[in-house]
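ESCALATION

Customer reports they have been waiting on this structure for their group meeting. Please prioritize. Original submission:
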Amino acid sequence: MTKSNKTYVIGRKKVRWMCLVAILICTLLYFKIYKIYNDSDRDFFLEGYFVNTSGCRILALNPFSRTALSYLNRLEPMECTQVKLLDAKTIEGENYLVLAMPTEEIEKVCNVDRVSEVYCKYKMIERLNDNLNTRSESRMFRLSNQEKQLKLKSGPIITRVQCYVEDNRTIYHDVHFLLPEPRDHHSRSSSRGKHLSVMVIGIDSISHMQFQRSLPLLSAYIATLPHVEFWGYNRVGQNSYPNLVPLFSGLNETELESSCYSSERSFDKCQFIWQDFKAAGYNTSYAEDNSVIGTFNYCKWGFDRQPTDFYLRPVMLEVDLFTRYSVDEQSLVHCSAGRKSAEILHEFIYKMIPHLKQGPYFSVSWETQGVHDYFGYPKFLDADYLKLLKRLRSSHILSNTLVFLMADHGLRMGSFRSTSQGMLEESQPLLIAIFPQWLEESYPLAISNLRRNAHSLVTTFDLHATLKDLTNLSLLNDSRIEKESILLQELDQNMPRGISLFLPIPDTRDCELASIPAEFCLCHKLYKIPSADDRCERAARFMVKRINLIIQDYPRCQSLALNGIQDAYLLKRGNDQDIFGLKVRFGTQPGDGFFEGTATFSGNALMLNGPILRINRYGNQSYCVNNYKIEMYCYCSEY
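Update from on-call: job pushed to the front of the queue and completed.
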């Protein structure tokens, strides 16, 4: 009996040891897997939160993570390969084409003995609508040794100039423009306190983290100015259009198009923020450096009537039709003669300065080329935007102007976008407000709220409401701000989706209340899981099926098949284990597409939560469709 009992005790010890060893092995395996899937996450997160409210928590990202820095210096500078022979200038009230380089240098680069051997023809350009310019008959002139080469008519000018040498070899082809001189030369000091000029300076596809990484000179300079940096600025749409439509109209893209565009062939009947400023007595301007993928022109009709007082589009349209050439292998960065498209945009801003001095003014400039497609490109912009802000300051424009330096979203495609950090940065674009000191002194409560909202969840819907307030500065008086703040608090869950940044954004605001689709919401906590998880494949196959449903009415778009799962993340959804979100990044064939989407599991049911995003470039794969909502999914068949 004793022996039997002893054997039984020893057996129990063995079982206990075996259980302990099994638990230890499982624990080690768990932490090994956790380490594999979370080491990189810890690298790109910092301590604390960008937003930490009851409605939203956005973890602080590390702009200088190992992942981000490994992509930063891969891009070489892209320079224009042709020369700039001429400039357009206004000298003592008269418009001229002038030489842009010494005559000796012209003779050398053109391979001529005398500068007079270079002859040129020019055409005057007039805008008809966003998609068509008219052109005069050609007129001829020869270059000379004088600085002033050709006197042009007064007022606004667009001219295209083409120069040749004796063998009819083209050595120069470019588009030039001049703006009229300001009509009113009164001092703008009289308008101080009554009007505040507003500038929107946009840099496409640059996240807040990318700004910190790539534009240190500009960042350091802004730090010397009164400003607010918004760490909870969250995109609301996939690309530029659905993110900028709320900024300019206060509506989402569906609301805008159904109200004023779908039955029209232009946006002329739509109400945009520059019209509000115009009605308030402001001059207005709008400029983008890319006519092909312009906000209101990519797969759209744009405007028949010129939307603002000054408008760069007819210049860029003429460039894109006649003088543009590419300086990168993918044909995404363009030059005209010796200038990049972005330099033409900046030339427009500098030529606007005499008008900006007269005030009040509302202006929009938006730079796209290079930054839209290359992760490393923003570093080439640092000196240019530093120069611009310094010029605005030295010209005393910043003393009476509120500047929004901003983006629409982060980088949407490419290898960095395929990383976990790139995924998060895409939804956190840059937003900084720069303002004159007197504004804070005159409207302390409004600016106090502006500063408070630096760590609130904000969108372009809020920016639109903010711009509306700026059309009339009396709306920023403390008494009005106090009244509106109380009303906002009383609304509670019925708060509007667009809240002026001069009001305190409620802490209870979440993505749903802010009209941020779940796919773009940064408030969710993401947990990376193995892509081999059965739920991942189910979600990915569900999304491929949805893509095929989207393209089924386009017979030349081939059906897609799942071609692997790259990454997957669980979205934290409270304590309900039966309802959860799953974000997956997956590949498809044909066409080597990479997509990302979020599905919601509710018991056995599966629902799509937001759009399915294309995260790699697709070039001309969708040549057979002309629909910006379809093209990212379409791989055209050969027939």
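Sent to customer with the following note: The chain has a mean pLDDT of 89.
Escalation resolved.
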